[in-house]
Amino acid sequence: MTQKVLIIRPGALGDTLVLLPALKNIGNRVHLMVAGREPGISFLKKAGFYSVNMEGGGWYRVFQENPDSSAGLSVPPQNRVVAYMSDPDGRINENLKAYFPAAEVTVLSAYPAPEKKTHVARYLCTTLAEAGLPVDPDCAMEQAKKKPLIDADAKRSSEDRIVVHPGSGSPRKNFPPDFWVAFIERISREPAMQVKGKRLVLLGPAEKDLRDFFRERISGASEVAFCPRNEELLPFLETARLYAGHDSGVTHLAAMLGTPTLAVFREDNLPIWHPLGPVTRVIQSSNPDEACLEKMVDAAKALIRRKRNHER
């Protein structure tokens, strides 16, 4: 009998997406279910995995003291439960055992120890293997670098655009907006970077105060998209010849879709969070100066060349 396994990982977009190397490696060898949060679980569903939203279905009870386990959760009985959650007093572990009495329950830290300098996706692969799931961490990570983890919509034709996301979930990761304006201006003048479509500046909730700044500073050949819905975001990324951004969930998504992805890391967490995909380049720099800008432009041109050579 194929075992039923529930993986619980409530987190932001990037936190959820880094599960994909392990999930893809496991495949259909077990009946997998992932409990998490939007928007990440929507993209897990697109990748072919059954997911449930922890914002409903009574999941708040898992965090309570002495909850009524007879009320149940929005999932069927499981053989194994692996939860990536902070649980210093053991309450979550005990509650999960009450809700899933027939399951082997394991509660783990959401991230590897900082001193380990281990990629989060490899940490998840390794800990799932140690919990008894059929995961080969080396194979999973190698495959994540060779082919897209999320299949793009083959029906969409390339709109030949460049997408720039000048934000992230943390201001300390971000280069100043002026740097991204300079980057857009530079690539617009490069013969090798000419595209038929407009250059798109993608802004999320954290960048709401930058909407007017970018609309005033970028040319008519560029446009600004603020908080696109998932069904809008995917076409932006799937049809792009290049995506450029910080260490963010959208950067992970672009890389996993197979979009040529250029990421700039301001902090020294590159070994832990570098994007996974078949066509990625990463620049690590704490200083958004002219030298960094030159590296970004050169890397962008190299990615565009790879994309065009692949299409010939």
CATH level-two architecture of the largest domain:
3-Layer(aba) Sandwich
Order of helices and strands: EHHEHEEHEHHEHEHEHEHEHEH
CATH level 3 topology of the largest domain: Rossmann fold
| Percentage of β-strand residues | 15-25%
Radius of gyration: 21 Å
Roughly what percent helix?
Answer: 25-40%
Query: How do the strands of the widest beta sheet line up side by side?
Result: 8-7-6-9-10-11
Sketch the major β-sheet: 6 strands, parallel
Give the arrangement of secondary structure elements.
Layout: E1 4-8, H1 13-17, H2 20-26, E2 31-36, H3 40-46, E3 51-53, E4 80-84, H4 91-99, E5 104-108, H5 120-130, H6 137-146, E6 161-165, H7 177-189, E7 199-203, H8 211-217, E8 222-226, H9 230-238, E9 240-245, H10 249-256, E10 261-265, H11 270-273, E11 280-284, H12 290-311
Parallel strand pairs: 1-2, 1-4, 2-3, 4-5, 6-7, 6-9, 7-8, 9-10, 10-11
What does this structure look like?
The structure is a single chain. The protein is α/β, with parallel strands linked by helices. It has two domains: 4-146, 3-Layer(aba) Sandwich (Rossmann fold), CATH 3.40.50; 161-311, Rossmann fold. The protein has twelve helices and eleven strands. The protein has helices at 13-17, 20-26, 40-46, 91-99, 120-130, 137-146, 177-189, 211-217, 230-238, 249-256, 270-273, 290-311; strands at 4-8, 31-36, 51-53, 80-84, 104-108, 161-165, 199-203, 222-226, 240-245, 261-265, 280-284. Strands 8-7-6-9-10-11 form a six-stranded parallel β-sheet, sandwiched between helices. The chain has a five-stranded parallel β-sheet with strand order 3-2-1-4-5, with helices on both faces. The protein starts with a strand and ends with a helix. The model has no long low-confidence stretch (mean pLDDT 92).
